[in-house]
Amino acid sequence: MRTLTAKDEDFQRLEGRLAQAYRDMTAGDLASLLTLYHPEAVLQGPSQSAISGLAGLRAFWTTLFERFRVDTAPHLKEVTAFDDVLVVRGNVVGSLHPKQGGDAVRVDSWFHQIYLKQPDGTLLFWRGANRPSP
């Protein structure tokens, strides 16, 4: 086990993957966003059912993109490597803007995520949990 810093290649690779994912969210680019996920990915927030697999994630993001324009950004606080597994702690801030009008929904949430490093070096989101925004 080792804590990664911004100088580590895997930290930079993860930061790049997250930056691209959040650009994809802002653009509403579902196809590109889904490349972040491992086929067996699971995402869960408190008081929510787990979202499992690419089909579940596709349905989740489709519904969100139909209702909101996403304007959020991640901030990494800690990345720990265990061989080909990266454990990430961070937060995301920004807003969800309703497409039908109305006030933006403020996003200020923590997250824990686990990424699996693939043989080609690609990092895929495998498991994650987050606190919903107030």
| Mean pLDDT score | 95
Could you say which overall geometry the principal axes of the C-alpha atoms support?
A: globular
Low-confidence residue ranges: none
How many DSSP E strands? Answer: 7
Based on CA atoms alone, the radius of gyration comes out at: 15 Å
N/C terminus separation? 34 Å
Briefly note the structural class of the backbone. alpha+beta
What does this structure look like?
There is one protein chain. The longest helix has 19 residues, at 9-27. It contains three helices and seven strands; from the N terminus they run βααββαββββ. It has one domain (2-130): Nuclear Transport Factor 2, Chain: A (Roll). Strand 4 (68-82) and strand 5 form a beta hairpin. The relative contact order is 0.20. The chain has 134 residues and is an alpha+beta fold. 29% of the residues lie in helices and 46% in strands. The mean pLDDT is 95. The protein has a seven-stranded mixed sheet with strand order 1-4-5-6-7-2-3, covered by helices on one side. It has helices at residues 9-27, 30-34, 53-67; strands at 2-3, 37-44, 51-52, 68-82, 85-98, 105-117, 123-130.
Structural topology:
Elements: E1 2-3, H1 9-27, H2 30-34, E2 37-44, E3 51-52, H3 53-67, E4 68-82, E5 85-98, E6 105-117, E7 123-130
Question: Which features characterize this protein?
Answer:
single chain, 134 residues, alpha+beta, Nuclear Transport Factor 2, Chain: A, 7-stranded mixed beta sheet, 3 helices, 29% helix, globular
Give a nutshell description of this structure.
The chain has helices at 9-27, 30-34, 53-67; strands spanning 2-3, 37-44, 51-52, 68-82, 85-98, 105-117, 123-130. By secondary structure, the protein is an alpha+beta fold.
